[in-house]
Amino acid sequence: MTEVGLFVVLFVALFIGWAMGRKSPAKKSKKDKNSVPTDYFRGLNHLLNDQHTEAIDAFVDSLEVNSDTFDIHLTLGNLFRKKGEIQKAINVHQNLLARPEISQREMRMVQLELASDFMSAGLLDRASRLLLNMASTARKSEFQAEILTLLVDLYEFEQSWDKAIQIGSELIKESPSKKEIKRLAHFHCEMANEMQKKEQWKPAVQHFKSALEVDPSCVRASIGAADVLNSQRRYRDAIKELKHAAEQDPEFISVIIPKLKDSYQRVWGSGGYIKFLEEQNQKKPTTALIMALVQHHMEVDKEYAEMFLVEQLRKHPTIRGFKELINLQLGDSQGHNQQHLAVLYELIGQLVEAKHKFQCRQCGFAGHQLHWQCPSCKNWGTVKPIHGLEGE
Ligand SMILES: [Zn+2]
Question: Where are the TPR repeats (predicted)?
Fold first, then answer.
């Protein structure tokens, strides 16, 4: 709906609200009951002049709070917050809270909105005090899941991972949604990374394990655990974790391959590593797998490496694959041919460099780095390596 359309609907809603509101208070005189408040006409005038904010202000003044107009006040407050006029949203919601006639249920609804206002205004202390107070007094109320969700949002924003884990665990007991389960697993991974930075390996591994207990599909936890195990020189255990990560989500194979190669080379040489690459390439060929295999074949038999690459490119053409093919040809060529190939190699190299490597499956945000939380839509675990002709 366009903004103008929204205001027309709001205007109709306000009129109905005013009409209903004027019926309820029995104490008012007959004259009061039948008159339209001047604030209402003031609002209408602002609306006609496209002064939307002033229009809402006037409408708020014209409406008295009662059970019939409660929802309209709540909607107006939210509208202010969405327009970025947080102080006005806070005023409307606090005005509602000050009314003795609102019920306990309505009071909690307003408090939830007020907590969102505080968070939007960056008043995180006030938001957390309000929400914690609600969580302790409104236990098992119908709003418990909403209260806990807002608290988790707040601790996530503050990057207070221990608190986010505590409340997030309560939340998935209360309302076990897929999104919250995924998010909680990533909070454990964030804690694990903090431990890792302090070289506290044991609690770091424990947090990665907790992440996997919460969400067995959390590929980040397996990759993270492998990194810690590598730091502890537990290469065999790291290999197990990395192979598990490839099973959890084969889309991350380009992230897994270099780590796996490193771990294998430290214990068993490249035999098991090549076997793993070949098995994975049989299941689902990707550029990263093909490139890793070409690299290996190059060390043993350059001619075979070239044949293998051409065969793979016929089945799965990728820009990075073509770049590698030119590189192989470059070594065998001379004179003008070599110069031309060198120019082509450089141009394709620039093209590959310019392409993003990772993309959010939720909002489409793309970048050169892997972010476990999308910088744009803030979802966890939605950014993955790009595949296909231009990707991995
Ligand atoms: Zn996103």
Answer: 185-218
Computed on alpha carbons and rounded to an integer, the radius of gyration of the chain in Å comes to 30
Same domain as 232, residue 126: no
Q: How far is the CA of 373 from the centre of ligand 1 (A)?
A: 8
How many Å lie between the centroid of ligand 1 and the Cα of residue 252?
17
Residues having C-beta closer than 5 Å to ion ligand 1: 360, 362-363, 365, 374, 376-377
Give residue for tokens 């209408």. 44
Which residue range(s) make up the domain with 130?
1-137
Q: Which residue has the tokens 């019920």?
A: 103
Q: Residue 77: which CATH number? A: 1.25.40
pLDDT band, residue 26 (cuts 50/70/90): very low
Would you give the end-to-end CA distance of the chain in angstroms?
Answer: 40
What's the CATH number where 193 sits?
1.25.40.10
DSSP, collapsed to helix, strand or coil, labels residue 384 as strand
- What phi and psi values does residue 295 have, to the nearest 5 degrees? -60, -45
**Of the listed ranges 12-26, 66-80, 273-287, the one predicted with least confidence:** 12-26
Distance 371 CA to ligand 1 centre (A): 10
According to the model, what pLDDT value does residue 342 have? 86
Q: Is 189 part of any known ligand binding site? A: no
**372 CA → ligand 1 middle, Å:** 10
Q: Which residue did the predictor score with more confidence, 156 or 59?
A: 156
Q: What is the Cα–Cα distance from 135 to 128, expressed in whole angstroms?
A: 10
Would the annotation count 218 as a binding residue? no
Whether residue 377 is annotated as binding a ligand: the answer is yes
Q: How far is the CA of 348 from the centre of ligand 1 (A)?
A: 28
The residue ranking higher by pLDDT, 123 or 61, is 123
Distance 381 CA to ligand 1 centre (A): 9
Over 90: is that where the pLDDT of 208 sits? yes
Q: What is the mean pLDDT of residues 230-244?
A: 93
* φ, ψ dihedrals at 360, nearest 5°: -80, 125
Residues 198-216 have a mean pLDDT of: 95
Residue 204 makes CB contacts below 8 A (sequence gap 6+) with 192, 193, 195, 196, 224, 228
